[in-house]
Amino acid sequence: MQVFANLVLIVQLLSALAIIGLVLVQHGKGADMGASFGSGASGSLFGATGSANFLSRTTAFAATLFFGCTLGLAFLSNGRTTSPAAADSVLDRAAVVAPAASGAAAIPGAVVAPAAPASVAASAATN
Questions:
Q1: Which of 6, 15, 45, 77 could be joined to 66 by an S-S link, Cβ 3.0–4.6 Å?
Q2: Terminal Cα distance for the chain, rounded
Q3: Residue 60: which of 15, 91, 94, 105 has the closest Cα?
Q4: What angle do CA 76, 96, 80 make, to 5 degrees?
Q5: Taken in order 70, 73, 75, 78, is the CA torsion positive or negative?
Q6: Cα–Cα distance measured from residue 37 to residue 62, given in angstroms and rounded to the nearest whole number
Q7: Is pTM beyond 0.70 here?
C-alpha cells in the first residue's frame, strides 16, 4: 500500500509542475506571448487553432489529475482500522490535563514547568 501511495504522490508532484509550466507559458488577455508558438499560423506546431486551445486543454487535464491525486492521497492517509475504540472521534479521546502545581487554575493543554529548588528561589528573592 505504501508503494501505491508513493506512486500517487509522484504523479501529483509531476502534475503540479506541469500546471506551473503550462500556466507560465500561456498568454494573458492583452499580451501575445502565444505568438512564439505560432498562435495565428495555420502551419504551426499546434495547428490552425493556435496554442491557446491546446494549452488550456492540457492545463485542465493536469489540474484534474492533480485533484484526483490529492483525493487519492487523502483517502490513503486516512488510516482506517476495524477496532471500535479507534472509531471514536478525536474529542472522545481527549488528553487528560494534569493539575497545576501552584494551585492556580490549570490552563487546558498548558505544560507545567518544574518548580525551582528552594536555594535558587531564596537567592533570587534576596537580589
A1: 15
A2: 63
A3: 15
A4: 15
A5: negative
A6: 20
A7: no
